[in-house]
Amino acid sequence: MTSTRPDPFIVRTATFEGPLDQLLRLAQDGQVDLAALPLGDIAAEYLARTRQDLDPDDVTETIWLLAALIELKARALLPQPPPAEEAAEDAGQLEELLEERLAAYRAFRDVATALRTLEAYQQRVFLRLPEQPDEPLLSGIALTDLWRAFQEVLARGKERGAEIPPEGITVAERMAAILALLAAHPQGVPFDALFPAEATRLEIVVTFLALLELVRLLRVRVVQEARFATIRIYARTPQEDRTGAEAG
Amino acid sequence: MTDPRIREAANAIECVLLVSGEPVRLDQLADAVQAPADVVAAAVALLRQEYAGRGLEVQEVAGGYQLGTRPAYADAVRRYLGAAGREPLSQAALETLAIVAYRQPITRPEIEALRGVRSEHILERLEERRLIKAVGRKPTVGRPILYGTTEAFLRYFGLRDLSDLPPLDALGGPPPAVAPAETGEAGSEER
């Protein structure tokens, strides 16, 4: 890094002599004939100078100044098209369209304000909550269907032959297991899923008892959408918070 | 002296409105109390008059009548219920709902053109809250879903019907300064 700033770059042309930033200021004020300004020469001169002494700050500034000058000159050299009428019309139409949209939007925003007032009013009106019909615990399913399903599972258990059951399996254990399974499957599980293929007869019986117990305790729902359809078991959702419902 | 038939019908209607918990149409009331339409209408008018100074009020909402608590006592009710109340609609949801309400049936692209932003999610939320519903499909390319408001929408804002909506500045001129004042209409004396 150079410790001292180099002497400012002095531009020397036929019409102007002075620092670059001053040239830009004059050009911006329209006091310089940009068309006659040899920007290429100035740039080349500066480039030559950087070969001897390169100061990053100075380079940055100079490039910026030169670029600004190039832009000004480019604009000055470009023919100024007379304001095209068609374009003006298009712009007018577009503006009109935007105005229309904005007006429509404003109108809706206004009625939204009015609706907000109505909402606030109505949210302070409480209605008696209609009696909620009891959630069906066994919907679309006859006891015989459940029995048949149980028989099927039992038959499956039978095929494995008699076995001395290991440690005793309790209904409470199986209830906990079913609830855990249902908790992991909020969308419910098919009846069969309660009975793993390797389940023993005792496990099957106890699990079935556990299921019945859970139905009795209103902890699960057993649903069969159609006759002979898969029976599905769901965790029973806790009663909805009745206090939360208001008018609307 | 009130016509005893009207008195009787008013008492019966009062009971029906209490257990209903939602708007009951005049014909439903006539059916329930087994009285001619004119008697039912008079009985409802009598009830409304009698409830004027009470904690409950008979509101005309969504094409029927409902018995609800007066907003002035909402705080007492909320304290008792221990409920904070329902979340009001977001501003964006309210604006979208307004567009659906006034321009129904309307498609999502049409709504988005008006709002200038994508509105799929908001429409889904409004549908979830049962404030709007699909009412058909527009017979154009892609057959986009047409949305309309529901009866729950009328109940949510306490409107008798769609003609009860606050007037929309159809010309879209400068926002009317009177808009908020006008809206007390569907409310009542408390406002």
Description:
The complex is a heterodimer of chains A (248) and B (191). With 248 residues, chain A is of the alpha+beta class. Helix content of chain A is 52%, strand content 8%. A four-stranded mixed sheet of chain A has the order 3-5-6-4. A two-stranded antiparallel sheet of chain A has the order 1-2. In chain A, strand 5 (220-224) and strand 6 form a beta hairpin. In chain A, 22% of the residues are buried. Chain B is an alpha+beta fold and 191 residues long. Helix content of chain B is 46%, strand content 13%. Chain B has nine helices and five strands; from the N terminus they run αααββααβααββαα. In chain B, strands 3-5-4 form a three-stranded antiparallel sheet. In chain B, strands 1-2 form a two-stranded antiparallel sheet. In chain B, strand 1 (56-61) and strand 2 form a beta hairpin. In chain B, helix 5 (91-103) crosses helix 7. Chain B is elongated, with a radius of gyration of 20 Å. Residues 171-191 of chain B have low confidence and may be disordered. Chains A and B meet through helix 4 of A and helix 1, strand 2, helix 4, helix 5 and helix 6 of B.
Structural class of chain A: alpha+beta
The total of beta strands of chain A comes to 6
Task: Going across the biggest sheet of chain B, name each strand in turn.
Answer: 3-5-4
Gyration radius of chain A (Cα, Å) is: 43 Å
Major beta sheet of chain B, specifics?
3 strands, antiparallel
Average pLDDT metric of chain B: 83
Range of helix content of chain A: 40-55%
- Rounded to the nearest angstrom, the distance between the terminal CA atoms of chain B is 32 Å
Helix-strand topology string of chain A: EEHHHHEHHEHEE
Beta-strand share of residues of chain B? 5-15%
- The end-to-end distance of chain A, rounded to whole angstroms, is 73 Å
Query: Which stretches of chain B are low in confidence, meaning pLDDT under 50 for 5 or more residues running?
Result: 171-191
The secondary structure category of chain B is alpha+beta
Order of helices and strands of chain B: HHHEEHHEHHEEHH
Unreliable stretches of chain A (pLDDT < 50, length at least 5) are 240-248
What is the helix content of chain B? Answer: 40-55%
